[in-house]
């Protein structure tokens, strides 16, 4: 019996993604952040002082979700909202010194966790996996673009 692509690709991808998020949340708990918050903080550490709209696109978060995440990060003094001099109706999002310190601590920590996650998988297989993931992402982006037009 042939397994459907829905089950062999779709369900397997969702299951793996959830497991990665679950284990990362366990390891991020002592830092008082979640994987969702980490992805925003990491993005800000790479592109500081950007509009919420830009951050939404770069972090791949919808506006409502991003607003909630930013509220939590701001509450812990990891980010701050700054009035946008180019547009008084919007804010620029900036990472604070405390947020920068956290990214410097968490980044290498997560690299070690991912080393454990990929343990036993050779470089060639990992490169192929990343290539396939990028191809899937491009195909999905094309389908979304097609639906939005």
UniProtKB/TrEMBL annotation:
Q: Which Pfam families match?
A: MarR
- Mind listing the GO molecular function terms for this protein? DNA binding; DNA-binding transcription factor activity
Entry keywords, A to Z: DNA-binding, Transcription, Transcription regulation
Domain HTH marR-type spans what residues? Answer: 6-138
Record bears the keyword Transcription regulation: yes
Q: Which residues form the signal peptide?
A: none
Cite the PROSITE patterns for this sequence: HTH_MARR_1, HTH_MARR_2
**InterPro entries cross-referenced by the UniProt entry:** HTH_MarR-typ, Tscrpt_reg_MarR-type_CS, WH-like_DNA-bd_sf, WH_DNA-bd_sf
- Protein name (database record): MarR family transcriptional regulator
The species this protein was found in: Heyndrickxia camelliae
């Amino acid at each position: 019996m042939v397994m459907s692509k829905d089950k062999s690709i779709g369900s397997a991808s969702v299951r793996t993604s959830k497991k990665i998020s679950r284990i990362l949340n366990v390891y991020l708990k002592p830092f008082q952040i979640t994987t969702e918050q980490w992805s925003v903080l990491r993005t800000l550490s790479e592109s500081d002082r950007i509009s919420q709209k830009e951050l939404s696109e770069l972090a791949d978060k919808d506006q409502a979700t991003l607003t909630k995440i930013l509220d939590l990060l701001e509450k812990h003094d990891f980010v701050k909202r700054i009035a946008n001099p180019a547009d008084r109706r919007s804010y620029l999002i900036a990472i604070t010194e405390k947020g920068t310190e956290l990214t410097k601590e968490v980044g290498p920590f997560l690299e070690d966790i991912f080393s454990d996650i990929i343990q036993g998988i050779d470089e060639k297989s990992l490169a192929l996996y990343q290539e396939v993931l990028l191809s899937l992402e491009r195909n999905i982006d094309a389908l979304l673009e097609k639906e939005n037009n």
